[in-house]
From TrEMBL:
The keyword NADP is assigned to this record: yes
Residues in MnmG N-terminal domain copies: 6-380
Organism of origin: Paracoccus pacificus
Protein name: Methylenetetrahydrofolate--tRNA-(uracil-5-)-methyltransferase TrmFO
Protein localization: Cytoplasm
Keyword tRNA processing: yes
Enzyme class (EC, first level): transferase
UniProt main location, coarse: cytoplasm
Cofactor: FAD
Enzyme Commission numbers on file: 2.1.1.74
Length: 450
């Protein structure tokens, strides 16, 4: 056996990194502290457990940067995209999965790989030698976090991620709610009816906002207190609904509760003032998560407030919402473009701990870190993909493209890509977005071939 690659953390990034390195012929030891050492957000010891949502977001690789990232991961033999496609659920153009079946399958595939050993137990210190990828995610243990801080000398950065609740489908009142994807989006009937919609009148919406603002909120878990000045530095892509409501009474109505593109089949002539959407969460269709309803309300308050939503008055919750700390490095000041820690190049970092946000982005950085580490062990150097690709744009952002003084977690988006001229000089989104993705596909294929 040749030199071994150690990977700490079997979440999205660590699982994908392990697969990529092993497929390149490098032996991998994948260290995972769960279930021996649990977290307040995880339920299992499975690899690639989905904690917040069950969605990998848009699968449109023509007009969406996330969809382009899906395309690149599939082109690069990405394990997580293959497993997501295997366990796909109807979601109106999004790539949503049966989360338990997905994680179980990922775990089995990694466990069965002849070059991958899954080693249970917590890693508490950054190793001084050997080849390592740290992919511990937003819930990096306190001990390892202290070791990272001791080595980097950087001040800790943290924001708070919130988890949306999940409802038992058979407790939703379908005499009030109806099934429809926004603008009837989707190629099949299942896609066009992937969401359950709960309508609100203006009076119902105003009463809901009042209750939301008045509800008791959670205290942070032990050790989670933010050292940052108020307000708490939430990630804007995952704001608790009560924080959104505090920004203005109509904020939710123009956000996750927007009523556009939907027609109430029970009362077609009445336009809802606001709509709460629920998305299927498992293959059986027995569980639905409330879209965009991350929250820090206390459990009792959540039940009371959410049952004010028409159609959910008798709802039973499989899981209520929660809030947890998300820790990440100031990567632009600490990592090189091979995702190595400048102070100790035998250590690479991948996933959310590097300052990318989202399952897909985390897995993509794991894919790159795994390939780069394997190349190094095999005596080669693998540069990052061009910045014109989704992966390249992300890794460039976290390793130097972002301003270290104001660095915050980032989802992939076309704003990270170098500007592109649409055909004929047209600049509308309809022309510009395909120009981005056409260029990205060509450049990513050239990177893979090289």
């Amino acid at each position: 056996m040749g030199e071994v690659l150690h990977i700490v953390g079997a979440g999205m990034a660590g699982s994908e990194a392990a697969w990529q390195a092993a497929e390149a012929g490098v032996p991998v030891i994948l260290h995972e502290m769960r279930p021996q050492v649990g977290t307040f957000a995880h339920r299992t010891g499975l690899c690639a457990e989905m904690v917040c949502s069950n969605s990998f977001r848009s699968d449109d690789d023509r007009n969406n940067a996330v969809g382009q990232l899906h395309w690149e991961m599939r082109a690069a033999n990405g394990l997580l995209m293959r497993m997501a496609d295997r366990h796909k659920l109807p979601a109106g153009g999004a790539l949503a999965v049966d989360r338990d079946a997905f994680a179980t399958d990922v775990t089995e595939v990694l466990s069965d790989h002849p070059l991958i050993t899954i080693a249970p137990g917590e890693i508490t210190d950054l190793p001084a030698d050997g080849h390592w990828i740290i992919a511990t995610g937003p819930l990096t243990s306190a001990a390892l976090g202290r070791s990272i801080l001791g080595l980097t000398g950087a001040e800790a950065l943290a924001f708070f991620d919130a988890i949306a609740p999940i409802v038992h489908a058979d407790t939703i009142d379908m005499d009030i709610a109806w099934r429809q994807s926004r603008y009837d989006k989707g190629e099949t009937e299942a896609e066009r009816t992937a969401y359950i919609n709960c309508p609100m009148t203006r009076d119902e919406y105003e009463a809901f906002i009042d209750a939301l603002l008045a509800a008791e909120k959670t205290e942070f878990h032990a050790g989670e207190e933010s050292s940052a000045p108020d307000p708490t530095p939430y990630f804007d892509g995952c704001l608790p609904i009560e924080v959104m409501a505090e920004r203005g009474r109509d904020t939710l109505r123009f956000g996750p509760m927007k009523p556009v593109g939907l027609t109430n089949i029970h009362r077609p002539a009445d336009k809802p003032y606001a709509v709460v959407q629920l998305r299927r969460d498992n293959a059986l269709g027995t569980l639905y998560n409330i879209v965009g309803f991350q929250t820090k309300m206390k459990y009792g308050a959540q039940t009371d407030v959410f049952k004010m939503i028409p159609g959910l008055q008798n709802a039973s919750f499989a899981r209520l919402g929660g809030i947890h700390r998300n820790t990440f490095l100031n990567s632009p000041s600490l990592l090189d473009d091979r995702m190595r820690l400048r102070a100790r190049p035998n250590l690479r970092f991948a996933g959310q701990v590097t300052g990318v946000e989202g399952y897909v982005e985390s897995a993509a950085m794991g894919l790159l870190a795994g390939r780069m580490a394997a190349a190094g062990i095999l005596g080669r150097d693998l540069p990052p993909p061009p910045g014109t690709t989704a992966m390249g744009a992300l890794v460039h952002h976290i390793t130097g493209g972002a301003d270290a003084r104001t660095f915050q977690p980032m989802n992939v988006n076309f704003g990270l890509f170098p500007p592109v001229e649409a055909k004929g000089g047209r600049r509308g989104r309809k022309d510009r977005y395909p120009a981005y993705t056409d260029r990205a596909k060509a450049d990513f294929q050239a990177w893979l071939a090289a």
